[in-house]
Amino acid sequence: MNHQKLLLQQTVNHIHPLSEEDFEDFYTLFKPYTAKRKEVLTQAGSVEKYLYFVLEGLQRLYYLDEHHREATLVFSYQANFGGVLDSMMNQKPSRYYYETLSPSVFLRASYAQIEELLINKPAIEVLLRKGLTGVFSGILERLVELQCFSSEEKFQQLLRRSPHILQIVPHKYLANYIGIDPSNFSKLINSIKM
Cyclic nucleotide-binding domain: which residues (predicted)? Predict the structure, then answer.
């Protein structure tokens, strides 16, 4: 089994194990795709067409308001699914951008093909539901952090969830994710015992 397929299967098994046949049917939907650094894969206002599986690289999902202020919402990196999931599942225009922060290698499947497979493969529908439930749980945790935690507590939570994040995400994006000015980020790092 090639490395890409194995990585996808390990991630799928962590969410909801599939039979060999169901996994093969799911895997055949995914095609290789590469993107350059700072490439916008999904624009606000467009409908997400793909489910991405990250093999290499770093991406972010962000919101841009009418004053051109950005809010980084989510990072994706190796062995994560990515894309604008609400737009894909609802087939409605996205309010968010999905962009690469580094050169990236993906496997990606079109939503139309996934939708077709869901009709005949209930286990894949369960996989998708469990995956989305996990995403929803993460969003609720993040809302609590945003409303109740100090910047230091938000940063500590982020490091607990993703201890390697400091090595892969540029600090200006981490500062944006936490909601502080980038100039204060180095003070925050120095104030926390790691």
Answer: 36-118
